[in-house]
């Protein structure tokens, strides 16, 4: 018996391998058969983890946006100290100079939030409430306009108008305005209902943001050490290069666009208040928010100014639309290039195509992120092209 086993011992590894492969295939079959449940469980754990660390994610994003203002203030503080105390110990003073700069930025942000709460949100909610309550009035005005057009032309009546302009068009506009206003109001209600958890997350986010800004260099030094441990020098260099490129192309573009959008919103509100537009705050906020999407902001702002202003008077609607279109031209050709700079470097047609693709797949977020992502792709394509050309030249020599 033992002799027979010795003769067949070379088949043992094969048999064990077959058994292991069979177990793996059975496990794979179970996983594939229950893939919706498995994927759902995995997604649930991922979502739970993201919810737990969401204050850290928000803090990182806020710290990134505030880091350049902190550096700006820090440079001014250092210049003042160099003039007043040229012989001071610069290494020892570096820590409290950063602390002072972070505190100054926090005070500025708190002041801006206080201004937003006191001067922007109340009239904005009032505009939304007036808009919702004015929908029956707008409908009556719209019907009056149709009647006037029919009387003027003399050959049309309301039945013919209903054939030319489907009645569902105005119903769609009315339902859109109602649903939009109710969505905003319900969001406010949900926010109030979850206020306690929001306060906790807000406090954690503020604290983590403070430490991100204060100890940014030390945190990055720690991350660099971890990268040295787990990555080869070549991979680490590539990762650092990618992060720097991402910051130059995507980060600075988004940061500049947000600042420019705030300016567009403020100027739009001022222009609408100048002509006494009844929905000045609503139009300015909408123009500022949508300005982060190329080509969309000017259309939304001027379109709202015309539509909502026309129910007061046609002249006000036309004046508001013309003023916003003129300012958007000034902003697009003078203000935005100064703030954002030439971080994108894409032709207008590529920007438009990027916005269309990003919006089709990922909605509003895709429209906002599509342009800097396309610019990042362009940077790497240019680098690949230059690398290939240099390689071909070396081969030719």
Low-confidence stretches: none
Main sheet record: none
**Shape annotation:** globular
Q: Which structural class matches the secondary elements?
A: mainly alpha
**Helical amount:** over 70%
End-to-end gap = 74 Å
User: What is the N-to-C succession of helices and strands?
Assistant: HHHHHHHHHHHHHH
Number of helices: 14
Round the Cα radius of gyration to an integer and report it. 30 Å
Strand content: under 5%
The count of DSSP E runs of length 2 or more, i.e. the number of strands, is 0
Please state the average pLDDT score. Answer: 76
What does this structure look like?
This protein has 397 residues and is mostly helical. The protein has helices spanning 2-7, 12-33, 35-84, 90-133, 135-153, 158-164, 167-193, 195-214, 216-230, 233-274, 280-290, 296-310, 314-340, 348-396. It is globular and about 95 Å long.
């Amino acid at each position: 018996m033992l002799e027979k086993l010795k003769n067949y011992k070379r088949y043992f590894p094969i048999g064990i391998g077959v058994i292991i492969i069979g177990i793996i295939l059975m496990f794979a079959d179970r996983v594939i058969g229950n893939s919706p449940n498995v994927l759902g469980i995995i997604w649930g754990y991922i979502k739970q983890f993201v919810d737990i660390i969401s204050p850290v994610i928000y803090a990182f994003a806020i710290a990134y946006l505030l880091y350049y203002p902190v550096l700006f203030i820090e440079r001014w503080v250092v210049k003042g100290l160099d003039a007043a105390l040229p012989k001071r110990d610069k290494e020892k003073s570096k820590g409290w100079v950063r602390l002072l700069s972070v505190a100054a930025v926090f005070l500025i942000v708190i002041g801006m939030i206080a201004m937003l709460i006191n001067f922007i949100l109340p009239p904005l909610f009032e505009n939304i409430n007036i808009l919702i309550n004015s929908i029956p009035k707008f409908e009556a005005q719209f019907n009056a306009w149709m009647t006037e057009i029919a009387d003027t032309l003399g050959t049309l009546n309301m039945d013919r108008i209903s054939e030319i302009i489907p009645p569902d068009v105005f119903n769609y506009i009315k339902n859109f305005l109602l649903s939009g206003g109710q969505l905003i109001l319900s969001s406010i209600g949900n926010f109030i209902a979850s206020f306690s958890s929001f306060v906790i997350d807000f406090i954690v986010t503020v604290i983590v943001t403070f430490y991100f800004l204060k100890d940014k260099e030390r945190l990055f030094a720690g991350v660099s050490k971890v990268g040295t441990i787990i990555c080869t020098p070549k991979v680490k260099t590539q990762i650092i290069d990618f992060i720097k490129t991402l910051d130059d192309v995507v980060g600075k573009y988004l940061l500049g666009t947000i600042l420019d959008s705030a300016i567009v919103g403020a100027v739009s509100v001022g222009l609408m208040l100048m002509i006494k537009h009844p929905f000045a705050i609503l139009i300015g906020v909408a123009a500022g928010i949508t300005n982060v999407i190329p080509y969309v902001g000017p259309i939304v702002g001027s379109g709202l100014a015309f539509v909502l202003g026309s129910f007061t008077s046609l002249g006000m609607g036309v004046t508001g639309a013309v003023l916003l279109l003129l300012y958007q031209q000034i902003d697009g050709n003078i203000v935005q290039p100064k703030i954002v700079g030439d971080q994108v470097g894409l032709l207008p047609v590529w920007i438009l195509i990027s916005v269309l693709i990003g919006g089709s797949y990922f909605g509003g977020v895709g429209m906002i992120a599509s342009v800097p992502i396309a610019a990042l792709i362009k940077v790497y394509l240019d680098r690949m092209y230059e690398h290939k050309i240099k390689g071909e030249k070396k081969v030719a020599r």
